[in-house]
Amino acid sequence: MEQGALIRAQTTPGTEVYLNGDAIKVTPQGHFAFGFERDGALHQELKLIYPDGLTQIKPLTIKAKEYKIDKLTGIAKKIMKPDPKAQARAAKDSKQVKDARSQFTASEAFTQAFIWPLTGRISGVYGSQRVYNGKPGNPHYGVDVAAKTGTVVVAPADGVISLSVPDMFYSGGTIVLDHGYGVSSSFLHLSKLYVKQGDEIKQGQPIAEVGATGRVTGPHLDWRVNWYQMRLDPVTIVPSMASVLGK
Predict the structure, then answer these.
(1) Which of 12, 96, 97, 165 is deepest in the core (most CB within 10 A)?
(2) What is the pLDDT of residues 149-163, one digit of tens each?
(3) 0.85 cut: is pTM over it?
(4) Beta-carbon contacts of residue 208 (< 8 Å; ≥ 6 apart)
(5) Is the distance from CB of 102 to CB of 184 less than 8 angstroms?
(6) 3-class SS string, the chain
(7) Per-residue pLDDT averaged across 73-77, rounded?
(8) 129, exposed or middle or buried, with CB in 10 Å at 0-12, 13-18, 19+?
């Protein structure tokens, strides 16, 4: 268990589960998921109340992670702060994404063994951050895989498309795929989208093509994983890229 991790677990069906006092939804088979923030507390608590009334308290020790921090100076003010019209558009985009990630569905696709939606060179990692002119920017909350524009992206697990927009301000072509019980995948900077909201998707199904849309410097896939609004590290639920490429 470490900062940024998505944790998937199973307990006795009918058990109530609480993380730090907050209830977690559990499937009829006893499966559930939860996560730890990028800078989450290193000591947390899981409580389980079993069907027979027995209560178990499980203290959790979370491993701290170190993140890549880059400091940049001499950045133009217009780059640091987009114009008001662009900010308004970005705020609208953000609300759409937030709404898509807020949904609860009873799909149990989140229990699957996830696969990489794209294989290749990892060009950006979760948790990294840039400091512009002494001011910290938002951390990067995904894993970037470099590829040529037009390279096919596939679904890492089953799910339902909860958002499909071709031209968001920051993220360009954007898809959110709901895997159930608060777990979702997001795919950013896409050049072509094969799916629309409401489509039911199977693992490995082509859903889009890599692009350089939105605010980017080159073509790549930015894959993100969320537990509701909590931004988590995708590499915590897939085999290492090196092992996949080795096969």
Answers:
(1) 97
(2) 999 999 999 999 999
(3) yes
(4) 152, 153, 173, 175, 187, 190, 191, 192, 193, 194, 195
(5) no
(6) CECCCEEEEECCCCCEEEECCEEECCCCCCEEEEECCCCCCCEEEEEEECCCCCEEEEEEECECCCCCEEEECCCCHHHHCCCHHHHHHHHHHHHHHHHHHHCCCCCCHHHCCCCCCCCCCEEECCCCEEEECCEECCCCCCEEEECCCCCEEECCCCEEEEEEEEEECCCEEEEEEEEECCEEEEEEEEEEECCCCCCEECCCCEEEEEECCCCCCCCEEEEEEEECCEEECHHHHCCCHHHHHHC
(7) 66
(8) middle
Measure the CA–CA gap between 21 and 52, rounded to whole angstroms.
Answer: 20
Task: Tell me how long the chain is.
Answer: 247
Cβ neighbors of 10 (< 8 A, separation 6 or more) are 29, 30, 31, 32
Distance CA 105, CA 120 (A): 32
Question: Minimal CA–CA distance to 4: which of 143, 159, 153, 203?
Answer: 143
- Residue 191 is encoded by which pair of tokens? 């050049």
